Amino acid sequence: PQIQVRPFNLKEVANLRCLDPIAMDTLVALKGMIVRCSPIIPDLKVAHFSCCVCGHDHQVSIDRGRVEEPKQCPSCNTKDSYTLLHNRCVFADKQLVRLQETPDQVPAGQTPSSVVTFCFDDLVDASQPGDKVEVTGILKAQPVRINPKVTKLKSIYKTYVDVIHFRTITGMEGKQGTTTGNGSNNNTDGNSDGNTNSNKSKRGVMKLNKERAKELIALSKRPDIYEILTQSLAPSIWELDNVKKGVLCMMFGGNHKRVKNKNKTKKRKKQDQRRANNSMDSEDDDDDDNDNDDDKWSDDEEDNDDDDDDDDDDEDTKLNKRGDINILLCGDPGTSKSQLLSYVHKLSSRGIYTSGKGSSAVGLTASVVRDPETRDLVLESGALVLSDRGICCIDEFDKMTDATRSILHEAMEQQTVSIAKAGIISSLNARTSILASANPVESRYNPNLSVVENIKLPPTLLSRFDLIYLILDAPNADSDRKLAQHLVGLYYEKPNIVKPPMGTELLRDYIDYARENIHPRLSDEASEELLNSYLDLRNPPGGNVGNNGTRTISATPRQLESLIRTSEALAKMRYSSVVSRADAKEAVRLLKVATQAAATDPRTGRIDMDMINTGRTEVEREMGESLYLGLKEFLIERRGNRLAVRDVTRQLSEISNTQVAQDEVVGALRRLEADGMVQFNERNQSIFVRTGIAM
């Protein structure tokens, strides 16, 4: 057996941008984030040559990628008679991994530096894009050829690192830059090997030791653990307890489910009936008991095969249900939205922080680059893909372009990112929670307008958020004084900072352990509570009835799924394997104080989920329909005439004794144009009423 020596835990960790020629052929330790992993490349280790004249075999070991072909056969003394037999050569697995500085390591005003690393054998696929790792390896350099067919070389060399050891780093250790001493490696237990797959969970997080796990389990049994977690999250932010509880639910997350599709197609049913008939015919053809016994065994085997086939069919028809919770924070400036996003990003073991204005669709999904080794076009992961099984924090969400926001529809619901570029057609996993913050279009939130009108986000995207929090800066003498005292206390000579019940490292470990090991299921009491609460939201006791007798929608099936995910996250906070009735009640309360506050119609005070799902309330739809019918009746009397939109708006306002907005008139005219009643000239803002129209 081969014994491989893998040194790690070096005293000094170098910065990527500080690598210089002095460090060539020396052992170095680097910290960074993996941004790309190439497919497995076969690397030639031992070349096997055979003489074409006498068949003499000769093996040559590869030295730094150079193959020394034998010049003369020692058996028959023939020159240049050797040919390479690739099927008898010895190859090793090789993988290119690009390591890049994390955002916290980049100096101000500079772009992130990166370095190419090569992994071999059991280190291949030891890490994945998005992991923050400490790499121990040998820094090497190789010359750059101007032309592969010419032996002429450039005087400039390109550097790379041959990896000896990988170690996944989490927490604040992954946020730091260059470190010296052994302080950065205190989290390791000294028994890690080169392949980190054995010590890593599915989320790329290092598994905790038994002592730490016992400490976390003992902490979870405290009756006030929910309040302890709330007080420990972003303690420098004053109040906002309901927002913090919702963010905690997002960090713990629900369960990812694969629901079987029990509806079989007619073709499948016919196949099952045909198999049943065949088995009955085979039983009728048996004469003696021995044959019957044999057929019983064969029938049992056939039934097992059918079960396997059914399992395969069920596997193909399973529907993925996301367990990640998406949250949108919107409201007035200066309400700690960005500060909360930054804290969540630093607390999460895996994730990316980005800003809406500086993000593009390619930067969020994946870009097509040319591989420096093979010169092939490959995909390089973007923010959503790098945040897989983590949290993607997007600040200034309202500043994104429509083209950039459009790619989030698939990522937030199906949790995949589909790519079709440069002949590369792929679907990448983006199983991430999205925490976004948005400011109103007029800087201050206007309570007389709906949330859709305030932040100008498309309803199809807004409805994909499980919780939408309105954080408003409402003047209040008592709360303003307490907030001012809290802020001033942070700047004392001896800051009056209250120590949170749980430190950052302990809170991070508590969340990671729950996400990996706790998978609660709904109890009968919780299911009944969620069902009754959902029906109460759909049909409130007072009734959400519009002016024309129609009932407004105060909850949709999306809200029910959000309630299930939130209740599962609340059970995870207690390290419970069962969702209790109290968890379901708290999930309903969080939904009411968050999303339903944003879904309240400012004109009527009623809850109308259509305001988020479609962008228009029931009152607006009624007004639009009345305007459409009134405008249609108004134009029938003026058939064959050309009218200005401004004049039509003025006359309608006089007839109805109410102020009619010109934008609403234009929307109704577009409907009439689609019906063939008018010709609308958008440039001149005029219409021509066709002749021959009727009611």
From TrEMBL:
It is found in: Nucleus. Residues 177-199 have a biased composition (Low complexity). One of its GO terms (biological process) is DNA strand elongation involved in DNA replication. It catalyses: ATP + H2O = ADP + phosphate + H(+). One of its GO terms (cellular component) is nucleus. It is an enzyme of class 3 (hydrolase). Gene3D superfamilies: 2.20.28.10, Nucleic acid-binding proteins, P-loop containing nucleotide triphosphate hydrolases. PANTHER family: DNA REPLICATION LICENSING FACTOR MCM FAMILY MEMBER, DNA REPLICATION LICENSING FACTOR MCM4. Belongs to the MCM family. Acts as component of the MCM2-7 complex (MCM complex) which is the replicative helicase essential for 'once per cell cycle' DNA replication initiation and elongation in eukaryotic cells. The active ATPase sites in the MCM2-7 ring are formed through the interaction surfaces of two neighboring subunits such that a critical structure of a conserved arginine finger motif is provided in trans relative to the ATP-binding site of the Walker A box of the adjacent subunit. The six ATPase active sites, however, are likely to contribute differentially to the complex helicase activity. This is DNA replication licensing factor MCM4.
